[in-house]
Amino acid sequence: MFGLDNFLYPAPYSLIMSIFLVLGLDLIGSRFFQLLGFLKTDNSLPVRFCSVPVGAMVTANIFHFISFFGFAGYATGQVFGLFIAAAGTLNFLRLVKFYSELIQKTKLEKFYLGPVQILFGLLSIILLMLSLGPTTAADVLDYHLGSAIEILNSGSLPRKPEWFTARLAGSGESLNAIGLSVGSEQFGSLIQYCSVMGVISLFWGENFKPFSRGCSQERVLSLAVLSCPLMLFLLSGAKPLMWPISMLVIAFFIATHPSLERISVVVLKKRFAMVCFLCASATQVKFNFLLGGGCVGLFALYIMILQKEMKSSLLIAFSTFLVLVLPSAIWKAFNWGGNVFEALFSPLPGKYPGTAEMISLFSKNADTSGWLPFPISIFLPSSIGDISVIIGFSILPIFFLRLKLNNMNLAALLTVGFIFIANTFLAPPSGRVYLEPILLSFVIVASGIQTKHVIFPPFLHKIIYAQTVCVLLIASISSIYLFSGSLNVPWRDAVMRSSANGYSLMKWVDKVLPQDAVLLNGHRSMALSPRLAVDYTWVHYLPNTAPYPKAYLDRLVAEGVTHVLLTSMPNNKMPLFNCFEEIIATSGPMKIASRNPFNRSVISGAWLIKFNTNKLHECGGNRDN
C-alpha cells in the first residue's frame, strides 16, 4: 500500500484517533515515571504534560527495536496503535473524572485572566490548532512519513541506500508508523505540541499555575518558549524535533533538581536510569542529538559521582547503551557497510557513492536564503518567509541568569555552553539547531527563578510580550486555515492542494500511471507517491565524473522501474537519460512548498516518461567516466 491518503482515516476520524493515541501515551508515560520512583502522584499538571513525551519514548523504543528484525509491519503497528488508543480511552475517562472533581473543589476566583494570561491561553490554543492540521511540510512528506510507510510495508526501517534522507530515519519515524497504521495523521505533530507544554511545565516546577496572579518570571520564561517563531515550523508536522529536545530537557531537569541531595540511594539510581533512558532515546530519534544526549548524560554521571555512586552509575549507563544505542549501530553497519564505530558517529555510515556530497550538503543547510549573515540570521528574519525558522528574542532570558556557582551549577553551565559552541562548528547554521541548548539553559534559569536569583527587568517582559503578539497573529492565520483541513475530507483536500509539498502533483501521477507501474521519483515527497517508488534525486549527488554504481542500476532492475517522474523539461544531460522513452503525460504549472510553510512557489510543470531498464547498460555511458 502506497500514498499517504491510503493510510489515513477520513477527517475528522483521523483527528479523533490522534487525540486518543496521545492520551494513551500520557498514561504509559505516567506509569513509567512511577515505575522509576520519580512521582509521588500521577495527578499533578507537570506530570500530565511530561508523561506524553516519556510515553512516546517507551513506545517508540520498543517498536523501533522490532523494526531491526523486520517484524514492524502494518499488522504489528495496528496492534501497538489499538493498544495505545485503548489506553487513551481509559485515560480519557480517568481525566474527565479527575478534572471534574478538581473544578468542583477549586474556587473560581483562583483563576486570573489578565492580559498576559490571555496571551498565554490564546497562543497555547492556536498552536494546538496548528498541530492538529493536515501534514504539509516538505521534510515530513519526504522521509518522516515516507519512512513510516516503508516500515509498515516492509516491516523494517528503509533499506534503500540511494534514499539518503530515509537513511536518517530513527525511532521518531517508527512512532509515525504506529500512527499511520491506525489512520492517524496528526499523531506526530500532537506529540511535538505536548512536548513543548511538558517543557514549559518544568519551568514552573510543582507550582504550574499559568492562570494565577503573580509568577511573572515563570510566565515570561514560558512565553519565551511558546512564542519562539520556530514553533510555527516545529509544531506544524510530524517532524520529530521538539520531542527529542523535550527528552533532553526533562533529563537535564532531573539531573539538576535539588531533591537529588535528599532522596534515598535507590530512588537516586532510578532517577539516573531515567536520565540515561531519555538521553539514549533522544539519540535514536535523530543523529543531531548525539552531542546533546552525550553531554547531558555525562553531566548526570558527574552528579552521581558527586553523590559517590560512580560504579552503579557506570553500570546503568553501560546497560542503557547496550539496550538502546548499540542495536541501532549494529543494524546500520550490517545494512549500510562500515563498522559499528562509524555507525555510531556518522549520520550516513558506509561508502555508498554520493555519501560525502550529501553530508556536506546537510552541514550547510541554513533553512534560510536571506541576506542576513550568520548568526544574526537565526535571530532575525530577512523576509516574512523566514519568520518560522528563527529563534527571535526567545534567547534573551539567558542573559539575566544569576546563580551561585557551586559545583553542580558550574558543571551545568559548562555543559550547555559546550553544546552551544560545538553546534556552531559542527551543525548547520540554522535556528532549530540552537533551540536545544537554549531550552537546556532555561532549566538553569528556571532554577534561578525558584531561588530568587533571577529577576527579569521590565523591558524584557515587554519584548517577550510583543513577540508573543506577533507570533499569535501569524499563527492565527495559518492555524485556522490548516485546522479546517482536519474537520472534513473536502476541506482537507483543499488545504493539501494549496499547501502540501507535491500533493497536487502526486494526485496527477495517480490518475495517469497504470496501477502496476513502478516509479523512479524525481520529486522529494516520497510519502505521497501512489506507487512503489525509487528515489531519482540521489543521482544528482554523484560527482559529474562518477559512473552510476552497479548496485543502483541493479536496484532499478530488481524493483522493475517502468516510469520516471521529472519536474523539469527532459534533456540529454539528465542522469539515465538513455533509458527514457516516450513522454506519456505532461502537466501544467503546480504549487510546491518548501521546508518553511510560509514559502510558496510554483514548478513550470511535470513529465511522466516511460523508463526502459533493458537499456541500463547504455545509461552508464551517459557521463564522462
Structure commentary:
The protein has 23 helices and 7 strands. With 625 residues, it is mainly alpha-helical. The radius of gyration is 25 Å and the shape is globular. The relative contact order is 0.11.
What's the layout of helices and strands?
Layout: H1 13-35, H2 45-67, H3 74-105, H4 115-131, H5 138-144, H6 146-154, H7 171-181, H8 187-204, H9 216-226, H10 231-234, H11 242-256, H12 265-285, H13 290-306, H14 310-336, H15 340-345, H16 355-363, H17 407-426, H18 431-450, H19 458-484, H20 489-499, H21 503-512, E1 519-521, E2 533-535, H22 550-559, E3 563-566, E4 580-586, E5 590-593, E6 600-603, E7 607-611, H23 616-619
Parallel strand pairs: 1-2, 1-3
Antiparallel strand pairs: 3-7, 4-7, 5-6
Helix pairs in contact: 1-2, 1-3, 1-8, 2-7, 2-8, 2-11, 3-6, 3-7, 4-9, 4-19, 6-7, 8-9, 8-11, 8-18, 9-18, 9-19, 11-12, 11-13, 11-18, 12-13, 12-14, 13-14, 13-17, 17-18
pLDDT < 50 stretches: 621-625
Helix proportion range: 55-70%
Shape: globular
Secondary structure: number of strands: 7
Radius of gyration: 25 Å
| Most strands sheet | 5 strands, mixed
Mean pLDDT: 87
Biggest sheet, spatial arrangement of strands: 2-1-3-7-4
Structural class by SSE content: mainly alpha
Task: Report strand %.
Answer: under 5%
Straight-line distance between termini: 38 Å
Individual helix count: 23
What is the assembly state of the chains in this entry?
single chain
Helix/strand order, N-terminal first: HHHHHHHHHHHHHHHHHHHHHEEHEEEEEH
